[in-house]
Each structure stands twice: as C-alpha cells, then as structure tokens.
Design brief:
Helix content is 80%, strand content 0%. By secondary structure, the protein is mainly alpha-helical. Helix 2 runs antiparallel to helix 3, helix 4 runs antiparallel to helix 5 and helix 5 packs parallel to helix 7. The longest helix is centred in the last third of the chain and has 40 residues. The radius of gyration is 20 Å and the shape is globular.
Amino acid sequence: MNEDVKNTEAKKDEDALFYNWNTIPNWLCFLRIALIPVFSVLFIKDKFLIAAIIMVVAALTDLFDGKIARKFNQVSNLGKILDPIADKLSQMAIVIILLYKFWDITYFKVLLFMFIAKELIMLIGGGLLLAKGLRPSAAEMIGKISTTVFYIFMILIIAFGGENAAIKNVLPEWLMICMVVISLILTFAALFSYVPGFVKQIKEKKKFLDRDE
C-alpha cells in the first residue's frame, strides 16, 4: 500500500506544472519573451536593422528550444505551455509593429487584423482548456511550419519592405501582401489542426466527470 501511495505521489509530482521546469528550452522561451519589448522599442526608435537582428535571435530561440528539449529529454509541462505563449506574444508584437508600419496600406491592415483575430481565438481556446483543468496540446507540424514561415516572411518585410525598413523599398508592395497572405493561410491551417485535440480533451473531461458522478 505504501508503495502505491509513493507511486501516486510521484505521478502527481510529474504532472505538476513546474515539475522539472529549470531547463535550457524553458530559459530560451523566457529569453524570447524578454526580447519582445526590446524589439518593439528598437523599431519605434527607427533602429530597423538592429530590430530585425533581434527578431532573428528570437526566431532562433524558437527553433532550438524544441530541438534541445527532444534531443536531451528536457521536455517539461511548463515548456509545453510556455513555448506557444512565447510564440503568440512574439507574433502579436510583430503584427502590431507591422500595423504601425503599414497603416496606410488597406489590404495589409485587413490581413494583419485577421492575424490578431486568429491569435485571440487561440488564446481564448487555451484559456478554456486551462479553466477546465486541461492543458493545450503541443503544436502540430503545420503549426511549426506556419511559425517558421511567419518569422522568415516578417523578418524580410521589416528588414526590406517600405520606407520604415533597414534597407528601404527592396520588396514591392504586391510581394509583401503575398507573403502575408501565405502566412495567414498557414496560420489558420495551424489553428484548425488544433480543433480535433481541443474537442477530444473536452469530451474526455466530460466523460471523466460523468463517470465520477
């Protein structure tokens, strides 16, 4: 009986949010979040080249934290939540900066507001899961692809697009709009890829509660 109690307590510890949280991938996520205000302030102060470099660094932390977690068995409960939060905050900051930068381009503005709507849907969905004692599922492959494409395209736009760029007016307006449209299609595809897991968790939680009753 004592052994069963120990096993149960050990399982509870492993399920705790901050169990084994002090890992390199988690610190990379913290760094990515910390870089958001740095990037934003640099951009507002017209330091476009340095802002683009900071964004590259943020994108690299996103690339390496997952690889390190899997290779060195540093996957943690906190990391599963922290990584998508860092992604969402970074992407929202970039989109808001681009809105500020390209406010006069109507099509661009509409597309970027659609990005914001998608992120809000993701945040609300994640909040519902957490409110029900569940945890958002890890990103699917399409989610990783959409994030990678988003970073590449947005870095190019910030570095080479329009008057407010590190190197001005290299990218034509039609190309920038195409890049945003592609990113938008991929990001909504990623959103829909979470739906089956979201529904499954809700159903399993309902069955569990019904069984307890």
